[in-house]
Amino acid sequence: MTSVELINIEKHYGGFHALKDVNLSIAEGEFVVMVGPSGCGKSTLLKTIAGLETTSAGTLRIRGRDVTRLEPGDRGIAMVFQSYALYPHMTVAENMGFGLRMAKRPKAEIDAAVARAARILRLDEQLEKKPKQLSGGQRQRVAIGRAITRSPDVFLFDEPLSNLDAALRTQMRVELSTLHAELGSTMIYVTHDQVEAMTMASRIVVLNRGRIEQVGAPLDLYTNPDNLFVAGFLGAPRMNFVAGEVIAANGSSARIVCSGGLEVTFETLTTQVGVGETVTLGIRPERLRLGDAAAQIRIAGNVRLTEYLGRETIVYVDAGPLVTTGSDSGTSVFTVQIADVRPFDNGSAVSLGFDPADAYLFASDGRTITPSKPVAKI
Amino acid sequence: MSTFWRNHRHWIAPTLFIMPGALLFGVVIILASAETIWVSFFDWDGVGEKQWVGLANYVQLLDDPQFHVSLKNNLIWLAMFMLAPPLGLALALLLNQPVRGMRVVKSLFFVPLVLASVTVGVVFTWVYDPTFGLLSLIFGYFGATAPALLSDEHLVTFAVVVAALWPQVAFCLVLFLAGLNNLSEDLIGAGRVDGARGWPMLIHVILPQLREVSFIALAVTVIGALRSFDMVAVMTSGGPFGSSTVLAYQMYEQSIFSYRFGYGAAIATVLFVIMAAFIAWYLRTLLKPEREGI
Residue limits of the ABC transporter domain (chain A) (predicted)? Predict the structure, then answer.
């Protein structure tokens, strides 16, 4: 059954076009995470679903009911805010019961709902405290509890873990996933943290400049990004991009040359390209191999810097005339990720290698034109 | 010297900065108040010898019908001034709409704050004038005759308080507008998601956030009502027949015009005690949440 349906949603702020023709259908019980860079419209979209923002055009349905013009309280949603937004003058119990109290539910029912939420979130000891007396993690739990007591059709989360420290964030991430499994409710979650997106989502929605770039399961999006933006946005460290030009094309195969004279041949492109077209080659840091003589494409370079992260090593390699574009580090060097710890001397010569089958090719409009790669089964 | 300065500047510098203010406050407020209380135990015309009379001034106050009128009028001021915070809040909520041109409307409401209270008094004296005032015009429009508010001993205090309420409401309005600007948008959003709107939204979500502002508005209003003086002086000089005097005005009248400084000081002391009681309550309420760490 469809839980939430967005049909041609548009949003204008004066002259600013915040949401552009957003269409999305979310099934009952899904955990959908919306990600994107700041200003991409993900929070606006969430607030639009909540009813805190109006839509300029389009229809919004929750469980088949048109709620486009309804007040937030009448939509069957509950929301957890980044700032927690707890009522400071109310106790934890009053905070959690406020929604039901506004709905004029009998006191016994409110008490039961609050007790149940408190049990799930381990807040039984805190019910009589005021929000100020709680820690950040506890406050976030109260905010979640306030959502649970209303037994909404849809839970909305607006960057709920951003204000927590790293350890607590990991803990709450696990708790939220557990909670989703326990309640089985539809949840829509906005974050700029791709780790949260990859770990919690049943589906990820990538937004950019008010438009949905791609929707899909985390590993699908990671393995088969539809375009340059999604390829660059998901994955840390980021994919290496190299600008190139098509020098020979024959049916679905094409040969490209990159700066520094590197030539790569792609055999089965999904779209034909013409000679002279500018393209972008992409290769994930973990798909670049150091000193592998068997690799089909090999690049000579020097180690610029090495980061030892304990279980993995990130090596930045300067490949001379061959430069990458738009990297995380703001330089034009290649990022290589190695799954173990190996020492490298700065300045030492290394050979980078990869297979064209592991690489991506993006057309001049940013679309991915290499065929889909097999997704790891989980 | 430099070592001495380095070791002790953490208390020397603040002390030096506080000194001028403390000195001024000590002389003008503390010393003057103490002397006023002292003077209230004497019979004194302001120039000649002071004569110790003990509590005689206070005993006389108890039987002074004029003092009872002043006290009663102060209570009327206090009660009617309590309208200022809710009226100011209502206006602030009304004016806090994102409508084009609202800034101009807002600034119009600030006008009485710009005017000296003496001006407000004079303007209202004209408004109340039974022959050519605005009030008589309005009454005349309906074919009625306007009451002479300022010469009616039963209505005069109410008329003066209404005039004084004008700037007081505007003051509360400014406070609440500032408070409304600082509302948490997320909190209002949370309230809307929880289904609160209209009255419940105001009571449960908006007002608790305005608690501190309301408290300041209330305190300023109470103090404003108790120290009311200038409006009475300008509009009625306490008349007719002393029916619109308040404690502050009676004190001034007794001391300056009747040369009874001891008696005036006794009235001032009573007013001081009333104020002190209120301020003690205020500080207690203000400091309580701080002590509880909330």
Answer: 4-234
pLDDT digits (tens, 9 = 90+) for A173-204: 888 899 899 889 999 999 988 888 999 999 99
Is A82 touching B (CB cutoff 8 A)?
yes
Domains and CATH numbers, chain B: 57-291 (1.10.3720.10)
* Among A residues 190-209, those touching chain B with beta carbons less than 8 Å apart: none
Answer whether B190 touches A (CB < 8 Å). Answer: yes
- Across the range B32-49, mean pLDDT stands at 88
3-state secondary structure A63-118: CCEECCCCCHHHCCEEEECCCCCCCCCCCHHHHHHHHHHHCCCCHHHHHHHHHHHH
* Residues of chain B found within 8 Å of residue A50, distances taken between Cβ atoms: 189, 193
Nearest to B195 among A73, A81, A133 (CB): A73
ipTM of the complex: 0.82
Nearest chain B residue to A155 by CA distance is B193
* Domains along the sequence of chain A with CATH: 2-232 (3.40.50.300), 240-362 (2.40.50.140)
Cα nearest neighbour of A78 on chain B: B193
Q: Is B288 on the interface with A (CB under 8 A)?
A: no
Instruction: Check pLDDT > 90 for residue A122.
Output: no
Q: How far is the CA of B57 from the CAs of A329, B64, B271, in angstroms?
A: 85, 10, 14
* Tokens 């309208």, residue located: B83
